[in-house]
Write a structure and sequence with these properties.
The protein has 266 residues and is of the alpha/beta class. It has helices at residues 14-24, 52-65, 79-92, 117-124, 135-142, 150-154, 157-161, 207-220, 225-241, and strands at 2-8, 30-40, 43-49, 70-73, 96-99, 130-131, 168-171, 180-186, 191-197. The protein has nine helices and nine strands. It has a six-stranded mixed beta sheet with strand order 3-2-1-4-5-6. It is globular, with a radius of gyration of 17 Å. The relative contact order is 0.17. It is an enzyme of class 2 (transferase). Residues 8-256 form the Pyridoxamine kinase/Phosphomethylpyrimidine kinase domain.
């Protein structure tokens, strides 16, 4: 499992969350860092994109030696990095690509420049087996208003289907008034609903990274898309449910990736 993403100095999201998730769900994690963030549970104070040459060398180093079955792609800070990652995905052709179009952190900080959204849509979406936007990210991808309820969430589906991508997992976690957290797995011809009880906790930092990394991990281990999403949703829900066992920072704390010695949710 390769994660291509930014580094979170607070350890709750990004590369750090991905490696924890992949390890906890039974995969072996390798990584390519695209940006270094100065970040903690209170927010993001700085972002430093890694020079393109070094992103490219990391990708070549991993793909040329390790048998990468699945790739999870997270934070890509600008159009140039997006294009480099897309070129290497086309060159090495891993079996599975899960793209978490990271644009907005849980804290509300913008993590992807507006100018890069079109590049993301044209260069990377066609290479992905699945993208996993939350509601603000899904709205940004189709240039729509952020939905405020499940009905307006469902109205996004037709436009999401027009994106050049195999499948979309639209995450409903931002509908905080709802009793359950409902995610919609959208294919061209069908929609599958994944529901989980909403957990009352302030410690939700890194949930999107965790979910997408878990999906990629389960795909790499041979599960089909529906089962991989189901298992990943279950793992993430349990990590959130156990999040208050951790006392990390003064803001949005991380989920508890290692809520058991080995998180076998199968």
């Amino acid at each position: 499992m390769l994660t291509i993403a930014g580094s979170d100095s607070g350890g709750g999201a990004g590369i750090q969350a991905d490696i924890k998730t992949i390890s906890a769900t039974g995969g072996y994690a390798c990584s390519v860092i695209t940006a270094i963030t100065a970040q903690n549970t209170l927010g993001v104070s700085a972002i430093f994109p890694i020079p393109l040459e070094h992103v490219e060398k990391q990708l070549d180093a991993v793909f040329s030696d390790l048998h990468v079955v699945a790739v999870k792609i997270g934070m890509l800070a600008d159009s140039d990095i997006i294009n480099v990652v897309a070129a290497k995905i086309r060159q090495y052709r891993p079996k599975f690509v899960v793209l978490d179009p990271v644009m907005v952190a849980t804290s509300g900080d913008l993590l992807l420049k507006q100018s890069a959204i079109d590049t993301l849509k044209s260069a990377l979406l066609p290479l992905a087996d699945l993208i996993t936007p939350n509601l603000p990210e899904g709205a940004a991808l189709i240039d729509a208003e952020i939905p405020s309820d499940e009905n307006s969430m469902n109205l996004m589906l037709d436009k999401l289907r027009q994106l050049d991508v195999n499948a979309v997992l639209l995450k409903g976690g931002h509908l905080e008034q709802a009793e359950t957290s409902n995610d919609l797995l959208v294919f061209a011809d069908r929609v599958t609903h994944f529901n989980a009880k909403r957990i009352d906790t302030n410690n939700t930092h890194g949930t999107g990274c965790t979910l997408s990394a878990a999906i990629a991990s389960y795909l790499a281990q041979g599960h089909d898309m529906l089962q991989a999403v189901k298992l990943a949703k279950q793992y993430t829900s349990l990590a959130i449910a156990h999040a208050d066992e951790l006392q990390i920072g003064h803001g949005h704390g991380p989920v508890n990736h290692f809520f058991t010695g080995h998180a076998d949710v199968r």
